[in-house]
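User: Structure please.
Assistant: Input sequence and predicted structure:
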Amino acid sequence: MNFYVRRYGRYSRNARNREKSVGRLSLFWRVAIVAYFIACTAILGARWFFTSNLDAYRDDIASVVSRLTGVHIAIEDIHGGFRLIHPVLVLKNVSLARPNGPVSLTLPKIEAELSWSSLWHLEPRFRTLIVSEPNLTVRRLKNGSFDVAGFVLGHSSAVERQNDESNRTESSPAEQPFTKWLLAQDRLAIRDGAFTFIDEQKAEPVPVVIRNTQAVFEQGILGWRAGASGAVIERRFSSATAFDERHFEVKADIARSLFAHADNPLTWRGSLYAHFDSIDIAKMLNNLGIKDYVHSGEGAARFWASIDSGRLKNVTADLALRRTSVTLGKHLEPLKLTKLHGRLLFSEKEDRQLSAQALSLEFEDAKGAKFGPADLSADCSRDAAGRILSCRFGASEITIGTLLRLSPALPLPAEGREFLA
C-alpha cells in the first residue's frame, strides 16, 4: 500500500510542477504578445502621423523644441517619413534666434531620425541629427569660449561665472539648455559645411574660411567619438588675391566617466588624431600657447596624442617640413633648417619627468650641412614649479663636426661648449 501511495504522490507533485511551468510560460507569451501588438500599434500610428499629418503640427513641433532648448526656432517646411522603425523628420530653412533677439542662424536643411528613447526622456531625442550645407561664423572669445552663430560653447570657472553674473544678457540662459540638449543626441553630423573662424584673442583677428566640411559627433555607452575633415582657405601674405587651400582631418575618442562632460574639454580623457597635408607649424603651436620655440615652418604633418583632464600627456608627430626656424633657448641662436623629416615623440610622466625622442631625424641647415638620419633622445626632470632641473641626452649617431656647427643653437652645458671649442 505504501508503494502505491509514494508513487502516486510523486506523480502528483511532478504534475503540479509541470502545470506551474506551463502557467509561467503561458504568462510570458501573453505578455510578449501584448507588448508586440502595442509596439506594432505605436509604430503604425507614428508612421501614419509622420507621413500624412505632420505639417499640421509644424508650429507645435517648433514650439516644443524651442521650449526645451531655450532658443526660438521657426520652420519654413517640414515633412516626414520612416527608416525601418524610426520616424524621420526633414526640416527646411530652419531659423534660430535667441529669446527676443534677431535671427542669428538659418539652416537650409536638417534631417532628424527620431529615437524611441524620447518616450522615457519625455523630450525629443534623435538617433541621428544631420545638418546639410550650414554656413556658420565661429568666434573664439577673449575668455576662451566659442561663439557659434551667437550661441556660446565653452567652460568658465566658478570665479568667472560669479564675476560675469552681473554682466549676463537676457540671451545667456538660452545658451546652456541648447548646448546640453544638442550634445545629448546620439549622433550629430554636418555635411558640406562652410565656416568662418575669427580668433578675437589676437590683436588683429584674421578670418579663416573652412570649406567642404564633413563632421560627425557620436556618443555611446563608453564614450564620445568625433571626427571632421575639410579644407582651410587662407589668403597669402604676399598677395591680396591669391589663396592657399590646406586639407585636414581630425578625430577624437573621449572616454566617458562621471567627471567628463562633452561640452568641457578640461574634463576630457582619451586620444586625438590629426593629419594636415599642408600646415604652418609655427602658427599652430602659437594657437596652442607654445610661442617661444618654433618661429616658422610649413609642410605636411600627422599627430597622435593622448589627453587627461584636458592636458596633452603623450604626443607623436610625423613631420615633413621646410623653411623651419627653431629656438631652443632664450640666449641661443635660431636653428634655421631648409628641410626637416622625422618622427618626434613627447611624453609627460607622473613624477614630473619629461621625455622626448626623435626617430629617423634628418635635416639640412641653411648652409647646406646635413644631419641624419639618426635617433635622438632627451630625458629631463623638473621641480614642483615646472622648472627644468637636469637633462640627459642621447644620440644613435652624431659627429663632432655636426655638434660644432650646431652648438650656437643647442642648449649645451658650459663643459660641452669648452670641449667643442
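The first helix runs from residue 2 to 52.
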